[in-house]
Amino acid sequence: MNLIFVGDVFIIVTSLIVLVAASITDIKKREVANWLVFSFLAVMLALRVLIWILTGSWTYFVYALIYGVVAFIIASLLYYGKALGGADAKLLIGLACAFATAPSFLNFNYGIYLLGISSFFTKNLFIFDFIVNCLFVGLVYSLVYSFVLAFLNKERFVKTFSEISKEKKTLRIVFLVLGLVLLVMAFYNQINQMLLVLGVFVLIFPYLYIFVRSVENSCLIKMKSWKELTEGDWLVKSVKINKKIINPSADGLSKEDISLIKKSGKKVLIKDGLPFVPVFLISLIVSLLLGNLLIRILEILV
User: Which of 26, 56, 159, 284 is spaced 20 to 30 Å from 16 by Cα?
Assistant: First the structure.
């Protein structure tokens, strides 16, 4: 029996089950239980140690440690930059350990795109594929989710969009000129597809930025009472309660903060994030079925 094959199958099945469960709670409650995330990480590392002991394949475990450390650094930067929630960051670390080596039965060979790089490296780019796919899936997912929010809160959204659009008039003009220059260059070069795509993206970028900011300000920032607060919620503005000031932080509200808000009876401004765990789930499925979406797109364009 090929133990590495069995281990890879177990990793994929377990990861999918955990991500489905985490996605459901993330959508419903905007939180994922710590026990689920830490259990997933512990099981993945324990499995890789066991396979290493039974097969002698030290890379099966050591690469998990290496990718885990790298993912910890990246996740920490994203977390403190408020691009990821705490549970999202922990799940990213767990997934990096889980897929530190590519599943043995997958055969996405990118050697022709990475000339001069060893075949071992090109066969173990699965976690890189996953992260790249997260960027693509995350963009589409965020836009679709944001359009739904904008539709459900259209009056507030339209007003906010108009206000921000006026504030960013200079930004729109600069990107309009740059986008037109790229489009002219694209047609001058007998319709260069890369320049054409880049030119269109530059033209629509300021409106995407204004759209996202408008959704955030009109749909995601809400006044909440202590009954609606949960540990880790992101405070928008500092709030003074007696002599203590609770400031916004990347770690969000603590239990002590919520207790103080409860005693004061005040309402506070909270920024809700998009439930991001479904992006991990969709990206993992895409990575298993298609490999790297960026390379697939380049294959179509080139």
Answer: 56
